[in-house]
Design brief:
Layout: H1 2-54, E1 58-70, E2 73-80, E3 91-92, E4 95-97, H2 104-116, E5 123-129, H3 138-147, E6 154-163, E7 179-183, H4 194-211, E8 224-225, H5 226-237, H6 243-252, E9 256-262, E10 272-276, H7 278-286
Length: 287
């Protein structure tokens, strides 16, 4: 009987030892998991702090450089950012922050449609401007706070080129109540870095014309003279063209078609009219 009791007692102690081992193992695993969780949490906190220290509140906008041509000069369409008082230095490029569900191209089209009433204007995205100090002037920061009221640490803008005939009637439904066509050599000192954007756009429009000559004719009337076309080229490239050499250049432009019409009621020798033929141009492009 004693032997049987001792046998059960030994079995009992063996079971207790195993249970104790399992319990201790459970406690150890629990502590390891808890320690790991604390370490991971601390890592996330450190990463978040590093991100908060490194990253800033950045907003994305679009700005549009709209070119027109009048009196043998290129003009830029500007808007008055202060609706209540006129100040020549408050003229700026038309632009806007983009909406949450809006593509940048759509934002540029929206800005120009609200400003001109023209749907689907020809647009070319040409550069992003993201200098840390581009919106650091007190008057610019004050205007941003008053207009948009966000906490903007950095304002990044995507710049676009567009073309529009100056004599075209514009329907302005934008927040900018006053607009003006300003000759490019008479531009005021504008807010932000808009003067730099215009300067960069001049280089870009020349590249655009080289690759897509048709865009220049968006600045001319339907019927135009050789002189008008030459003066437009001179304005874009900021150089003089010899009259005879430019005439040879026009002859090579098969898509510039002479008309059987000449100027009327002029004090000089009447010049022949030309027109841009888009059908011929498209055939020329693929040839």
């Amino acid at each position: 009987m004693i032997l049987i009791f001792n046998k059960y007692l030994i079995v009992f102690f063996m079971i207790c030892n195993k249970l104790n081992f399992i319990y201790l193992t459970y406690i150890a695993c629990k502590n390891i998991i808890l320690f790991s969780y604390i370490c991971i949490l601390n890592c996330f906190k450190m990463m978040r702090k590093a991100m908060d220290d490194k990253f800033i509140h950045t907003y994305l906008s679009v700005d549009c450089v709209v070119f027109g041509f009048d009196n043998n000069q290129l003009h830029i369409l500007l808007v008055q950012r202060n609706a209540y008082t006129f100040n020549i230095n408050d003229l700026k490029l038309p632009g806007s922050l983009i909406f949450e569900d809006e593509d940048v191209d759509d934002a540029a089209q929206r800005v120009l449609f609200e400003l001109t009433g023209i749907k689907k204007m020809t647009l070319k995205q040409f550069r992003c401007f993201a200098s840390p100090g581009r919106a650091s002037k007190p008057e610019d920061m004050q205007w941003l706070d008053w207009t948009y009221q966000p906490n903007i640490d950095r304002l990044v803008t995507v710049a676009y080129l567009s073309l529009c005939k100056i004599d075209r009637k514009l329907t302005n439904i934008s927040k900018y109540k006053s607009t003006a066509w300003i000759p490019i050599d008479q531009l005021p000192k504008m807010p932000f870095d808009h003067n730099k954007i215009v300067k960069t756009s001049m280089r870009e429009i020349r590249n655009w014309v080289e690759n897509e000559p048709a865009i220049l004719f968006e600045l001319l009337p339907v019927k135009f003279t050789e002189t008008e076309l030459r003066l437009l080229y001179e304005a874009v490239y900021n150089r003089k063209y010899d009259v005879r050499n430019f005439h040879k250049k026009i002859i090579q432009m098969k898509y510039v078609v002479p008309l059987d019409e000449k100027q009327e009621n002029v004090n000089h020798r009447a010049a022949r009219y030309y027109k841009f033929d888009r059908v011929i141009y498209k055939k020329w492009k693929i040839s």
